[in-house]
Amino acid sequence: MTRAELKEKAKMRLKDNWGEAIIVVAILGCVSILSGIMVGIIVRNEYTGNTMTSIIGIIINSLLMLGFNSFYLKLSRGEQVTYKELFSKTNMFSVALLSIILMSIFVTLWSLLLVIPGIIAAISYSQVPYILLDNPNMSAMDAIKMSKNMMQGHKADYFVLMLSFIGWSILATLTFGIGYLWLIPYTQVTMANFYDSIKI
Asked: 70: how many CB neighbours lie within 10 A of its CB?
């Protein structure tokens, strides 16, 4: 599918589902903000507070990442889904956490060479959440390897697709971030469409 087709399909899927899609983004945002506030209240030391915030952020991301992606993947496939999907994959916490840690390590190592290799690595691993959702018994490392294979010949397409949302990101920022409640669902459904279009 072309870039325009991926985005048009996303608009079609979201047409009658904007409410649930926005709720998912709002819940995730509120959880992240509240956790940061709680750390700030409990921990007074700035360095310790920043470290704790990062650790809690990783934990929350690991708990909700797959549920977040599952919501938009199902939505992109025309399935009936509610905001409760956000909390449906907490049983996959360990594999989600391991995949985040491994990807972070690999991207960091590539970035030590130059910025561009790091970006290419991040793009190569971009399909890991979707792969884990479609293959719940797969290990984190196997999902990373599968993502690398899947993205061969598609990294430039993915990069350009991401760039196509920059204009919308600027507009969303000008609305003091409120616009991201609509932009994030639009982006996520489009990326889920991208995954299905290149899926091995």
From this structure: 22
Give the C-alpha separation, 135 to 143, whole Å: 8
The residue behind tokens 């650790």 is 55
Query: 151-161 as b/e, with b when 16 or more CB fall inside 10 Å?
Result: beebbebbeeb
d(CA 10, CA 96): 25
Spatial separation of the C-alpha atoms in residues 69 and 71, rounded to whole Å: 5
Distances (CA, A) of 168 to 14, 35, 52: 17, 28, 32
CB–CB of 72/9 below 8 Å? Answer: no
**Rounded mean pLDDT of 24-30?**
91
Tokens in use for 24?
């998912």
Closest to 127 (Cα-Cα) out of 144, 112, 105: 144
pTM score of the predicted model: 0.88
**What distance in Å separates the CA atoms of residue 6 and residue 22, rounded to the nearest whole number?**
20
Compare 103 and 41 and report the one with higher pLDDT. Answer: 103
What CA–CA distances, in Å, run from 61 to 56, 65, 94, 138, 193?
8, 5, 12, 19, 22
